[in-house]
Amino acid sequence: MAGTTPRPGDASETTADLYNPYEGRPCAYQISEPVADFLVRLPPASTPASEYGPWIFVANPHAVLVPLEQDLEYLTSKGQTVLDEWMTEKADLEGIGIHRRAGWLESALNRTRKLAENGLLDVAKEAGCTTGKWMLFPPSASVDELWSSVARATVANELGVIAKVATAPDEASGGEGGRSSRVICIYTADFSDVADVKRVLVKLKELGLVEAGGRGIYYKCDAYTCLGIASGNKYGFKASMYSSRELLKEGRRSRW
Predict the structure, then answer these.
(1) Long-range Cβ contacts of 175-182 (<8 Å, 24+ apart)
(2) What pLDDT is attached to residue 249?
(3) Does position 68 have pLDDT exceeding 80, yes or no?
(4) Other Cβ atoms within 10 Å of 18 Cβ, number
(5) pLDDT at 177 over 90
(6) Average pLDDT value for residue range 123-151
(7) What pLDDT is recorded for position 103?
């Protein structure tokens, strides 16, 4: 999400004050249309990717626009330096570890890996790349229903700043038709604002999109996405910043 970063505001604005970075784009909600019409116009279960692109978007029209230039070149350059330095340190520790007591290497790697992860998040903040998202992976058969709840809550200023859902892959878009699951992303403006990240999670739980005691969902910062840090990455980093199970526990500690 390059460019300026919106932040949640209040719902007292006039229509002229409402925010929509996707105004005029066919693949997105328009402020002038009722949400129900938007959902009928672009149902994700059947909206073809070849015609509308890979995503359907809805922006929170009550978000407050805060200018925040994202320096993605700095993020990728400095971020890769942090990653390379961590890999060098990891190799050094593994060389030393063969001569140390059992458990020493694991402890040393965990400690230094955490320092590297925090350093990478600091770079993301410096670069202005502060957005992140909760991710849902509903079956294709129920994606319209779940997306309806997310879209309505986003427009009502009850979730984050933006949400998006994957369109239907088809042969013309180079995708696999009939894919069994989709992804819905619910964005917050600042991954370090744990209170806001948790507020959005709690609302998702209230909407029935996160099962109490069931399978958790995960929050990933966009900086990791830009740097290609996914599950099972070679750096040994956790691909997600938060899990719903962790964050819903009382007294969770955070570096922020």
Answers:
(1) 175/49, 178/140, 179/140, 180/139, 180/140, 181/137, 181/138, 181/139, 181/140, 182/44, 182/137, 182/138, 182/139, 182/140, 182/143
(2) 83
(3) no
(4) 18
(5) no
(6) 95
(7) 85
Contact 249, 227 (CB under 8 A): no
Q: How confident is the model at residue 23 (pLDDT cuts 50, 70, 90)?
A: very high
In percent, the amount of the chain with pLDDT more than 90 equals 70
Q: Which residues contact 54 (CB under 8 A, 6 or more apart)?
A: 166, 167, 173
CA nearest to 191, candidates 235, 252, 256: 256
Mean pLDDT of 188-192: 94
- For residues 169 and 53, the answer to whether their CB atoms sit within 8 Å is no
Please give the mean pLDDT across all residues of the chain. 87
Question: Residue 231 CB: number of other CB atoms within 10 A?
Answer: 10
Place of tokens 């070679």: 234
